Structures are given as structure tokens and as C-alpha cells.
């Protein structure tokens, strides 16, 4: 590993290339946190949703709501109509829905007429009359106007948008248009899934703007406190830049967008890189204390830490790469890019950076102000307990793990994007207002297909579909529905005023054809295709979490199995369907990644130690903290979601690093003829300082993430920090006891 040590120019060239080459690729990086980017292309729900979009508009919308005493005045409605028409002129907006833009079915002497609900020519000078007309419509209440008349909605349905930046552009344009209109004073909130995506994008940018300099600053402060060398800060900063640049460019190369999951990447890589560097700097201090100088000091340090650093990088990468087993694409991409970047960082630290550091290193490498020495008290106290009472330590550990295991059934698998924000966040306040005054913001589509063109005009099929809609309307999760049979029943009642039932349907197909001649409007084809072979029931749900969505879908499946008419096929689509699948994907990804990381780390330990007892000693103390992390989640009610699903693999990959350093030192002592207890004590004394220091640095950086107002980032940071601190205690307290019990009497072998 020392082949570049005497070739500083070549080392500088290699390092310069690694720093510079990612630059052009970074210009091609795309920011996209849209919900679709989280689902695998091969998922049945994704495939079906794409098929649905070929004949029905998308369900992701932007909802602006207005309140005020004058919102039903002629002037306000005229201004709202002008705003709606202006927005519809935009190429990225497919449809704008408001009380001024939708149709209203009005009975006439010879049938019915299709008029604008409150558009030009339909308003009066009386606000109460305008309100009464809006509330008389079957479909406007709870969608475009609140039942108490206090709220109006403007629903913007865009064309398919590619990426979060396009959604941000749409959001800003709509807000700017409202601000330039006469209705601006009445705007109180903007919500919907597009607004949610924009809120997540802004949270991601804010996290990047604070966490990157924050974690870097913490690293530099701790490194200065421990080593007091400007060379340490310079080399560390350059190495962090190279590693994070490599990871980000790899994200571009694999065609993956930068998401909220990716936003964790820079602070995590900063922490991992600094941890590896600290082992090198600590080894240099140790070599210096033994009288070694210059190149001899560097070679001794590399001899001590090169193998542990490389193997710890391998185990960390194994933990991260195991995330590729997750079917959630941003998690898989995160695992790949950070895992590969960790390996690049390790290779830089043991091959390239020593040659550069040798050119600028200080004359002495002793730690100043007792920075590292202050770690000794912690390690010595834990070591003394472990070596004197190994069986007691292991018995207490087993009891703690048993109690922790009892908490596992309490873990809740859930994904609710709105819960990622504080209750007082504007997106949650807007959603609360929309759902209180109008209806839920989670869309669910029931897609019903018949055997051939025109078959959905059959009265029996229409009644079967209407029965499904009626069942939906009675569910507490459903606030609003609209369907083709509902629109037909409104035409039927208008054509036959004597009919009192609001859901009566024509009993002849000829009557259906007659009504459709009167009502040939684009709004109709939002719920039925032009061949009348496919239709959809649109439902607005007031639940957002995967658990509640799945409960509704299971109940729907049971209902449909017993009531769906022959020849009809039913499927579910929309954001409600996609988010319901998150629960299954998270469980599958967690099981796959845990199995994969366990297998890879076990194999790496077998390759490194080639001794089953050493393998057991290296594995047990590192999987136990993961059990404790899950126990904390179960006890505190922390959900297993997109962020926390990564904690176990990341924690295992990082935690095993300290174990490798301690076991490597213990084995080296045994090979030199030391007794078991002496070898353990020597290893802990020489490496314990660095282990405590690196854990403190890593934990501090992860705890810094807890300051994020965005809940996934904060929870990921807290749980990972807790896991690392637990792992440190296991390494300094449980690992020595485990080595004593496993190896006593067989050391010579």
C-alpha cells in the first residue's frame, strides 16, 4: 500500500483527477423528489398507473383555497374566472377547476342544459344567490366550495411534469399569478401533492445548506481540538471534497435523481471519511510517541492502520450496499453511491494521502492539550469491568437483549409524507384547512374495465359501479367521490324531474345514449374513456398513511369480491394506491438488506480472521446494537419508514469498524506472544482513544442532523447516533468479555 509514498507528484495527479473529474457530471445532476421516483419501474402498481394515464388525467394537483366575506360576489367570481382562464393558457397546465370553470346540469322543458356553474352570465349581484347555485350542484360541494359557503377552491391539474424542479416552477407561477390577480387578499392556503413535493424539495435544499457546512465545521473543530495541526484540517477537507464529489457523480452516472434520501449522503460521507482519517492521525501520534520520525513514522502508522481501515471500509460499504436490496429506488441508489464512495475514501487515505501528507506534515505528531488522552479514562474503566467480570457482563447483556427483543412486535411500518413535517408547517396547516373545509387530499382511483367498447353504457353495469361508489361514500376514510354513473344519474334526474332519488340511473341503454348527446363535454372524459369501456371512480381520502390506506384497500377487495358484476375488472391507481404499497416495499427492503448485510459482513470476517471464534466475537457485538435500535423504535413509537429503514444497515456497517480495529490489535498482540488479557488491554489502550474519538465525532455529526426540522433527517440522525454510542459501549465493555470467554484456553491455537 506504500507504493505512492515516495511519488508525491503522481499522488497529487491522482488526487487532483479525483477532485476535478466529477465537476462536469455535477452539472447534470437532477433534483427530483416526486413520489414516482420512489417506486420501482417494475412494480405492478407503477405499471398499472402508467397505463391508466394513457386514457385518464393524472391525479396530482395543486389546490389553492380562498376565504372571505366577498368570495361569492360577482366581482370576486369574475376575477376568479379570469385567473382560471389565464392559468389554463399555460402549457404546463392541463385543466383548472373552479366554480367558474366547471359545468352544471340544469333541467329544461325539453330535457336539460349544460351550463357554466358560476361562470360569465351565470352570476348575479346577490352573493347569497351565487352561493345557493354553487351548493345546488351535485359535484361542487366539498370539492370546489365548502358546505358552509366559507371557502372556495381553485384546483390546478398540470400536464405530466418531470421532476420536482418542474413542480416548483409550476407552484411559483401559480402563486405569482394569484398575487397579481384581484383575489390575492382572499388566498389563505395552498396544498395538494404538488405543494407537498415543493415543501419536501425546499426542506432538502435547506438541509443541504445547513448540514453540509455544519457537519464539516464539527469535523474541523474536533480534529483541531484533538491534533492542533493545520495539515490535518487541509488534508481532511480535501479528502471529504473528493469523496462526496465521487458519490454525487456516481449518482449521475447511474441515472438516479438527487432526492431527500440523497440529502443524507454529504453529511454521512463527511462523518465516515473523518472517522477513517482519525485512525491514521492517531496512528501517527502513536508512532511519534515511540520516537519515529518522517517517513519511518508514516510507514509505521500505515502498517498499523491500513488493513483495519480497508476492512472497516469494506464492512461499512457492505452495510450500505445491502440497501441495494430495497425496492425503493432512492434507498438503493443511496446504498450504492455511498458504499462505493466509502471504498474510494479508504483507498485515498491509505495510498494517495500519505504521500501528500508526508510533504507537509509537522515535525511532531503528538496530540496537544491531552485531547486524545482524555479518552483514556472511559476506555480504562470499561475495560477493567469487562476483564474482571466477563461472564457477569455477558449475562447482563443477554438480559438486555432479551428485553429489547420483546419490543420488536411494537414496531410500526408506516409512511406518511405529511408526518415528515411539524404540525405547524405551512403544508400541514394548508392540508388541515382543506380537509376541514372541503375534502381529503389523498387521491384514490378505482379503475373499472368492461369487455368491449360501449359496454359501460349497460344499465346493469352502471348500477354495479354505482354500488361500489356508494360503498366508498360510506367509508369514514372517504370524503368525496365522483364517477360516470353519478354524472349520468344527475342527467337522468334533470331529464325526469319527478324522480326523487339522487342516485337513480336510466334503465335503458338508449336513454344513456340520449343523455350523452346532450352532455358531450370534456369533463365527462375525466371519468370515462371515449370508448365507454373504461371508467374510474375518483375518491378523495382523508388518510395519508400506508397502514390506513391498506386497510381501506383490503376492505375494498372484500367488498368487490362479493358484489362486482360479471365481466367487470377492477383495479386501483393513483397516489393512494402507490403509497399503500410503501408498507410492503419497506418490509421487503428491510428484510432483504438485513439478510444481505449479515451475509456480507460474516463472509468478510471469515476472510479477515479465518477463525470462527474471532468471527463470532466480531459479529455479536455489532448486531446487538441494531436490536437495541429497533427496541428504541418500538418503545418510542418511531415508525419504520423510508429514512429509518436505512439506519440498521448503516449502523451495522459503521459499528463493526471499531470491532475490527480492536480485534486486529488483539490478534497482533497474541501473535507477538502476549497473554490474552495483556493483548486485549494493549489493543484497547492503543486504539481505544481513537475509537472513542471517532464515535464522538460520528455521533456529533449525526446528532447535528437532528436539528433539521424535516423529520426523516432528524430521526435518521438521532437513531444512527444512538446506535453508534451503543456499539461503542459494546466494543469497550462486551467485546473484551466475549473475547475472554471465547478464547480463554484456546489462545495458542
TrEMBL record:
Species, as recorded: Congregibacter litoralis KT71
Compartment(s) where it occurs, according to its Swiss-Prot or TrEMBL record: Cell membrane
The protein, known as: Putative exporter of the RND superfamily
Topological relation to the membrane, as annotated: Multi-pass membrane protein
Main location: membrane
InterPro entries, alphabetized: MMPL_dom, Mycobact_MmpL, SSD
A Pfam family it matches: MMPL
One Gene Ontology cellular component: plasma membrane
Domain SSD: 229-359, 616-741
Transmembrane stretches, start-end: 208-227, 232-254, 260-281, 302-325, 331-358, 591-609, 615-640, 690-708, 714-743
Superkingdom to which the source organism belongs: Bacteria
Keywords assigned by UniProt, alphabetized: Cell membrane, Membrane, Transmembrane, Transmembrane helix
